[in-house]
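Supplementary notes for students who missed Thursday's class. We covered one full example, reproduced here. Read the sequence, then the structure, then the short commentary at the end.
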Amino acid sequence: PTEFMTNKEAADYLRTSTLTLWRLRRSGSIPFYRIARKVLYRRSDLDTFSEECRRNNSGRSDESASLSFAK
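Structure (token representation):
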């Protein structure tokens, strides 16, 4: 697998929408790279983000907990 992912690939990887990914990017909650006009995400950054969300939401059972995050 490649180290970097496009917006669509990253959204699929995190099982979320591209709009939610944009919101995370805009809020500074998820790191990204911009090359010319292209936005890319490093797989290891997405894994770290996902793990932090899981730790921050342990004990919550609602589906929205998977994308809740604290800055």
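Commentary. Residues 62 and 68 are 10 Å apart (CA to CA). Strands lie at 4-5, 33-35, 38-42. If anything here is unclear, bring it to office hours.
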